[in-house]
Design a protein that fits this description.
By secondary structure, the protein is of the alpha/beta class. It contains 10 helices and 8 strands. Bound molecules: 2-phosphoglycolic acid.
Length: about 250
Amino acid sequence: MTNKLKYFVGNWKMFGDFSSLKIINSINKFCQTHKKTFNKKKVILCVPNTLIEFFSKKNFKHISIGAQNCHHEQNYGSYTGSVNALMLKKVGAEYIILGHSENRSDGDNNKILKKKIESALNQKLKIIFCIGETLLEKRKGKTFSVIKKQLSDSLNKSHELNKIIIAYEPIWSIGTGKIPNISYLKKIFKFIKYEFVKKYKTRKSPIMLYGGSVNASNIANFSLISNIDGFLIGAASQSSKKFIDIIKNYYK
Ligand code: PGA
């Protein structure tokens, strides 16, 4: 296995209980057998809030634990059923997914996401910020303007940008088995980098992930895109075999 380790981020969504420890154990064991490659903890599992403390206390050598969303308020308050970034940090989360399309469709808009990003950064959580267009927006040729707005409305120059990972997830690809073609993806990643560098007047490219129907059979396609730093993996991350096969096939 080569040393050019990419990020492999699992998004478990609403899945898992204490017995799911065996999934993480298997993934950690796999990383251990390739420990030269996995010495940078770029395998991240974003699990339900109910499992964060249980998993983070295991102190996995090769896996970081993350959350999947939070409330935008920094402080405690009357928000029944909600959990904020402070509470997630306290139970051991290191990362947090924000802006996932499943949460955007539940009401998370760019303005609310900006608040969530700020409160997560205040808690020193690293953010996996999801952006991406719907099928309709793609058909109408609006992909680039949608992405541009998602970036510019939610990110701020004062943010610690090295704590923010951008995950491009076309909504039409999530859970559908459809993936964008390579030339489309190359353009998108180039565009995200361009927007980022322009807006933040930095030479540093953001860390960029691709997400949407990533599996062991299609992962090899993505190695053709040099700008991709890793993957955000939904359904396939709920099985240690599928997740490990993705990693193995990427490096084949
Ligand atoms: P999927 O989900 O891999 O099941 O398409 C990706 C995601 O929702 O982050």
